[in-house]
Amino acid sequence: MTFRTTEKVDALIIGGGYYGCSIALHLKARDFGRIVLAEQSGRLMTRSSFVNQARVHGGYHYPRALDTAAASRRYFERFLHEHRDALTWNTQSIYAIAAGSKVSPRQFARVCAEIGAPLAAAPRAVERMFDPTLIDAVFLAEEYAFDAIAIARGLERRLDAAGLHPLFNATARIVGREGGRTVVEAGGNRYAARWVFNCTYAELDGLGVKVRSGLRRELAEIALIRPPAELDGYSVTVMDGPYFSSLPFPAMGAYSLTHVRFTPVVSWLSGEPAPAGLPIGFDRPMSAGAMVIDASRYMPAMSRSAILGSLFDVKAVMLARETDDGRPILFEESRDFPGVVSILGSKIDNVYDVLEALDKRVEQRPAYA
Q: What is the pTM of this model?
């Protein structure tokens, strides 16, 4: 392949998901210099930013990881403000604590109080939706779902207004160092970048830079369902352990259904090859039926849900936090390629942790030589 003259840039961001776009806009607002955003597909937010529960976390989901719960709550209102036109405001969030849960109702309420997350006992009509022999307590919470397509359109408008035009269909790889910069080939172009931000999520090792932090990757199945009429308008999470969540998935006009036991299809560790033939995107369900059956034990009306299909994508989880279900960000600079930073966050709304870490790191090294 013949390349044009190598173009010098101040920041090359690889990955046009929510994190990559947010970093590009954040650096542009700081007048960082020449910024390029490269995305291997033809659109923004087509992979992990789209294939997830579409939950705006309010901290409730992490009672065993106080740091993650507090961070979720700290940025909750900011995310709502920035994306209010892409949210579902007409749903009621319910959290139910299962008998045998890893946290008791009292512990759950104490964590919510500590992080400032509103919580109230559910009315009797809501409690009756659950099997009382399997559920210890039911609460009303404050959480919402987001429309990934609407967020992507908003990001497109903001990027265009900022003069940032993503390079699409651009698979990237690092090829070396030159004059104190990292040289990257992307989409038929060659760039010499002072900073490279690797926002490729489950494909962090695919650029030619080794990530030192231990990661486990798993193919995740998110079932898409149409719930029965009496559950329409409710976002439900039964926790904490091998239980389930179901909430609106606005981007496809459906509800998602995930299950701690059945959503992971297959997993592998860093350095191991991914299994061949993994389904990616919308496909025929694999374990959706099992999710509905088990969810129905706790919430009998779930048995009348219609399965519409499933979404599949590869998730990445930091091994260091699997025991307490914490979800900190990974912000790791390469030892071999100074200025190349691999970034991983498991929730769309903890991007603000990334932006804070970004500000601290780039301030230590000037953007310009």
A: 0.92
